[in-house]
TrEMBL record:
The keyword Membrane applies. Pfam families: ArsP_1. This is Permease. The lineage of its organism: Bacteria, Pseudomonadati, Pseudomonadota, Gammaproteobacteria, Pseudomonadales. It is a multi-pass membrane protein. Its main location: membrane. It is found in: Cell membrane.
Length: 178
């Protein structure tokens, strides 16, 4: 696939175009309503944010591509495919729990696994686990601020959520494919 075809297929999709248009309209509205100085401050702040986040996104996307190319599809399908069952669910939940970082790290990994053969329901379970059971967040934020009893109870209540999400995704996938 040529670079131009890849850019057209991957980068110029509807969501990219929508958010580009939204950013341009927001910038114009800011300039019109608050003036040039407010626009410059916002543009500088957003530029600094992009510079701070870009390396994380770049590394995560490289890892996503490596996952896709390094892991043979048959192994990914065996461990994370639609026939992986409870083993796949357990791997997804554990993976989601131990994945550090924010969405800039987790989502490219999911894309890599999904394109390498992981099933939709396993990816849903992974993201749900990462969202509600993430140990990094628990250790750094929740325990110091909320205390052990609160965090333990929250984790116990949240533990079934990736399982429920996996089951619902599996059900919806079957209905859609039927």
């Amino acid at each position: 696939m040529s670079v131009i075809a890849y850019i057209k297929r991957e980068l110029l999709d509807r969501s990219t175009l929508f958010f580009t248009a939204l950013a341009l309209c927001s910038g114009l509205a800011l300039w019109w309503l608050r003036g040039e100085e407010a626009f410059r401050v916002a543009a500088y702040s957003s530029g600094m944010l992009v510079l701070m986040i870009a390396p994380i996104i770049l590394i995560a996307m490289v890892i996503s591509c490596y996952v896709r190319k390094l892991l043979p599809t048959k192994h990914v399908e065996r461990w994370l495919g639609s026939e992986s069952g409870l083993r796949g669910l357990a791997v997804a939940m554990l993976g989601g729990m131990v994945t550090p970082g924010g969405p800039f790290a987790a989502f490219p990994l999911v894309v890599g696994f999904y394109r390498a053969g992981a099933s939709f329901e396993i990816c849903v379970a992974y993201l749900t686990s990462w969202t509600v059971l993430g140990l990094n967040r628990v250790l750094i934020w929740e325990l110091p601020f909320l205390g052990f009893d609160f965090v333990l109870l929250r984790l116990l209540i949240s533990l079934p959520l990736p399982i429920i999400a996996w089951m619902l995704a599996k059900l919806l996938t079957r209905q859609r494919n039927a």
